[in-house]
Every structure is written in structure tokens, then in C-alpha cells.
Amino acid sequence: MPMISVRARVRVAWWLKLHFYGLATCCALTGREPDWGRVSYWINKGVCVDFREPLVQRCRRAVLAVFRWTRP
């Protein structure tokens, strides 16, 4: 089976870490869990995955659907 090498660049927005610190602080103060749907929304807004190979560019949506963040 032939090997395919793929380069991916993952960029995280500068504000995402601050958002998580604020969220963790609010959860610790109130004793409640966050809305995981909103957490997933902001992760998808703050993380950018850029694939460099042309083959992956065509099926980028399928690859991102596999690596989408889910609650453990």
C-alpha cells in the first residue's frame, strides 16, 4: 500500500486560551458545568486546520468531520 504524507497546520486563536480560563473560573465559582454545545462552537471558531496536500484539499470536509472535537 503506498504511503501518503500530509502536512497540516493547526492555528489556535489568541483569545481561545483566555476564554477557557474564564470558563474554568466561572465553573469553579458556580459549581456548574458549561454548555458543551457552546464550548464546541467556540473551539470550532478558534481552531483552524489547514491541509497542504492537494488530495486532502478535495476531501477536507470529510477529514475535519472525523477530527471534530467531541465531549469525552
Blueprint (SSEs and pairs):
Layout: E1 8-12, H1 16-30, H2 36-46, E2 47-51, H3 54-58, H4 60-66
Antiparallel strand pairs: 1-2
Describe this entry's structure for a reader.
It is a single chain. By secondary structure, the protein is α+β, with helices and mostly antiparallel strands. It contains four helices and two strands. It has helices at 16-30, 36-46, 54-58, 60-66; strands at 8-12, 47-51. A two-stranded antiparallel sheet has the order 1-2. The radius of gyration is 16 Å and the shape is elongated. The relative contact order is 0.22.
Low-confidence runs: none
Quickly count the helices: 4
**Mean of pLDDT:** 79
- 3D shape: elongated
Strand content: 5-15%
| Broad structural category | alpha+beta
Largest sheet: 2 strands, antiparallel
Strand order of the largest sheet: 1-2
Distance between the termini: 33 Å
Assembly context of the chains: single chain
| Share of residues in helices | 40-55%
Order of helices and strands: EHHEHH
Radius of gyration, in Å, reads 16 Å
Total count of strands: 2
Short key terms for the protein model shown above:
4 helices, alpha+beta, two-stranded antiparallel ribbon, 72 residues, 53% helix
Summarize the structure.
This protein has helices at 16-30, 36-46, 54-58, 60-66; strands at 8-12, 47-51. It is of the alpha+beta class.
